[in-house]
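note to self: dont lose this again. the chain is below, predicted strucutre after it. 328 aa total, dont forget to put it in the shared folder this time
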Amino acid sequence: MAPSLPSPPPSPTSSSQDLLEEGLTPEQLQTYNEDGYLIIPDALPASTTASLLREAQSLLSNFSLSSHPMTKFSTGDSDDDDKNGAAHVGDDYFLTSGDKIRFFFEEDAFDPSTNELLKPKHRAINKIGHYLHELNPAFRDATLTPRHAAIARSFGFKDPRVLQSMVICKQPEIGGRVKPHQDSTFLYTNPPSAVGFWIALEDATAENGCLSFAKGSHRRTPINSRFVRKPDGSGVEFAEVGVDGASYPKDFKVEKEIAVGEEETYTLGEVKAGTLVLIHGNLLHQSEKNRSGRSRFIYTFHVIEGREKYDERNWLQPSEKGFSRLYN
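---
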């Protein structure tokens, strides 16, 4: 396991008072560019945060098990998972979820000998995805906002598109560990352009599996592989980006890669409910297993540059109307 440092105090410039419709302040943008992530406390009003949490809990309580294929979502905690592409599910329920709201179970919610659920359904789901930002009014209203459009402008997006959204539940006692990863591996454009908008619906702590970040790794860690559909349609796999694929965003200042055998140091990102965390698509980040008795619900959506190439190999494919525009 990579070493982790305690959470730093939030930057005094990273507050909702600074995040007006003109976007990020110069200080916030500098922090994001240097570190690869930005923590903005109190980005959502407490009432909105509580409303989204209630909506997520309602979705969990009301979905039906009768027609559910009981698809599990693996966080890829073993090295073998990464090698054979089994770190994520690849059945039709998963691959056709890009324009639907679907529910994916935690692996540890099942008895390994009988495959029977050990938890009630609302305590057994790993995540809800991937079209909340269009099909659910509460999450749509919290996603396609002038504030988020202003942030995209601060990053220099010309045509920002929201391509997926998820509620990640990090359930008490069974919420799985997520190994170090880069979001642009899973949402690849050529060149890479993904940015994650990650919103805490509950307090995220070291005990219940908060994020941690390899600060500055976005400038020294290329996107070498991408998560794609297998050519024969049988599932998903990790494939090399290849000589024709870019590993960093356009006109990006790159540093020397970390030496072979060296480990990144991860900084804990403990945050309060209502916090927005912006995550560069090349940044290495992770979270530990939730061994506590408290859940860690978050809502996250990802934005890519609509002018960059997003091809048919990617596991997530757009609906007929295309990915959602963030600019009106």
